[in-house]
Design goal:
The complex is a heterodimer of chains A (about 140) and B (about 190). With about 140 residues, chain A is mostly beta strands. Chain A is built from one helix and ten strands. Chain B has five helices and twelve strands. Classes of the chains: A mainly beta (about 140), B alpha+beta (about 190).
């Protein structure tokens, strides 16, 4: 009984400990692309991995990073991102972000849309994000 | 006295050099472009006599180009606030296949761009590439992938830059486009206007 209780306690400590805060998307028009940004905190005691993203807003959704090489900037897909226990993954401009490719509708300032982040341990975390114009 | 004049001259020379490290004439490299309203424009000749801030973008860019576009907007707002006359803003697409005038128009609408002094341009590939060479801007397309319904998806690795052009069509200074020092740029615009 004690063993079962310990097991439950262990799993309850490690489940659903991914929190997504300050999420937003940049305004953009239908058929173009935009990015989703957020702070993703892993409060559990084990590392977790963001391995997939989805959204009904776009035809294709990927994890991306913006990089700089030889004075030029570009983007590339990243297959997964690990978040160590107690650490926060910053999805932010000029860095890692969720790419919403080929938008199905205009995303104008003030609208909200859903994005789901999939983690190896925490599972699917669905969030609502506001569309903003802000630079940072 | 002779040494005094020499020292003052050297100081003035160094001051001017640090304010505007570049002076490269581009007025003879004009190309035909079309703006978001499908109006043909000879660029940059049409801006002769005005201070011009130019960037090169593609509208499918989700991170760097929106920052650059927004930064030009911030400069535009500051210019208006300070009543600085004769300043114009231009963003030229290096993805003319996708960035048609109507796409540019939509891009401007969604971002509430004030098109009274800010224009978005597209044009023939050769024309855009010629202007990119004049402005020392590069854009290299990455591998193409496809959405589930077969639409091509590609991005560019590109120069991140806003370029300041003076009233005589000389490039005078370049700034990082996605991350600007607004005070520095406004000060440079004022110096050119003096």
């Amino acid at each position: 009984m004690l063993y079962l209780f310990s097991l439950l306690l262990f799993f309850s400590q490690n489940m659903e400990k991914i929190t997504v805060e300050h999420q937003w998307m940049r305004s953009s028009s239908q058929r173009t692309n935009t990015a989703f940004f957020a702070e993703v905190k892993n409060s559990s005691s084990v590392a977790d991995t963001l391995y997939k993203v989805s959204s009904p807003l776009a035809k294709l959704v990927q994890i991306h990073e913006t990089y700089e090489e030889n004075g030029m900037v570009g983007m590339r897909e990243v297959k997964m991102l690990e978040i160590k226990p107690g650490e926060t993954l910053h999805l932010k401009p000029r860095s890692y972000h969720v790419m919403l490719i080929n938008l199905k509708k205009d995303l104008k300032k003030g609208l909200y849309g859903e994005v789901t982040l999939y983690f190896k341990h925490a599972g699917a975390v669905k969030v609502k994000a506001e569309v903003l114009d802000i630079v940072e | 006295m002779k040494y005094f004049v020499l020292v003052v001259s050297a100081f003035v020379f160094v001051s001017c050099q640090s304010k505007f490290p570049e002076k490269e004439y581009i007025g003879d490299q004009s190309q035909q472009l079309v703006n978001q309203d499908s109006t043909s424009v000879n660029f940059p000749a049409t801006y002769k006599g005005k201070i011009l801030l130019t960037s090169f973008i593609f509208t499918n860019c989700p991170d760097i180009c929106p920052l650059t576009t927004h930064n030009l907007q911030r400069i535009q707002e500051a210019v208006k606030k300070e009543n600085i006359p004769n300043v114009r803003f231009a963003a030229i697409s290096f993805d003319p296949d996708r960035d048609t005038p109507s796409v540019l128009k939509k891009f401007a609408e969604v971002r509430s761009l004030d098109l009274s002094t800010y224009s978005l341009f597209t044009g023939k590939k050769e024309s855009v590439q010629s202007l990119m060479r004049a402005f020392h801007v590069m854009a290299i397309s990455n591998d193409t992938t496809y959405t589930d319904d077969g639409e091509p998806v590609y991005f560019f690795t590109h120069t991140d830059r806003i370029t300041l052009v003076d009233q005589d069509q000389n490039i005078r200074k370049s700034y990082r486009g996605s991350d600007i020092n607004l005070d520095e740029i406004i000060s440079d615009i004022k110096n050119l206007g003096d």
